[in-house]
Amino acid sequence: MANAWKKYKSNKLTTPKTLLLFFSTSLILLTFFYLTLHTTPSNNPNNPNNLHNNLNNNLPLNPNSPIQPFNCHTSPQPHPIIANLVEGVKHPFFYSLSDFGSLPDKPHKNIVRILKGKLFRKPDISVTVQEVIERMRGEGRNGAFVDVGANVGMATFAAAVMGVRVYAFEPVVENLMSVCNGIYFNRVGDFVRVFEAATSDRVGNITFHKLVGRLDNSAVSAAGAKLAFKSNEEVELQVRTVPLDLVIPETEPVLLLKIDVQGWEYHVLKGAKKLLSRKKGEAPYLIYEEDERLLQASNSSSTEIRKFLGGLGYTHCVQKGTDAHCTK
To answer: Keywords in UniProt for this one (predicted)?
Structure first.
């Protein structure tokens, strides 16, 4: 009878669902205590008590912008929150997940890492963003970072923790709420403006395809969204579109423009023609995803993009994985 009781007790406490709940709760509490212990005096603009009054106030906006920044304070609070520091980056930062995977059987890989006592795996784009910014600062340049397809902020926060102003664009509200969490966790309210929109070459609305369980693969093109994850549920929704040239002030120096929008890159670039037409030494370093399959799903091609960029003076492009790095 005693052995039977022990067996029953062990199974109840060690199910994947119970372990996940325990470690998620522990992580949230640890994050809360860490941030509480590191809270700065009340006159600091990044103090959570003052965050409401200071969020995004220091970043200029085009006076004719058709869209205002997303209000993190009035958005719903996602729960539970699973967040962690990123490993292996020179300037560490937190971010939180918007996808948890299929619980409890197939959790997100970073949840598995937490259960093993590890930090979140470093995203390649985070390392790249920090390296490019450091190199350009070494050349005497300063300016903002424009993050198109911000997802949960892995590139946004890589820049913001370096003191770089960031304009982040993301149409998926679940991802936006994770970005809002990251603004608080990283104390970067003075550095980040986030916009609930898909960037394009015109103002309006467009049908967007959200991929449940793989929000990072959501796309304007239905075929592009499901290219690698055909079995995932797809949800159609209407999202706002806005050209970058109508949001980023002409007087705002921009160091780096990163675009990762699952095949919609050409339309984003056309909507940023003024920004990209700036002269050498003032034009941004450009990183965009150049996946031919995704581009074709959105009725464009890498050849078309390279021709467009060449006409604006971006004649030096290097392929790095599925990303193209272009300069004048």
So the answer is: Membrane, Transmembrane, Transmembrane helix
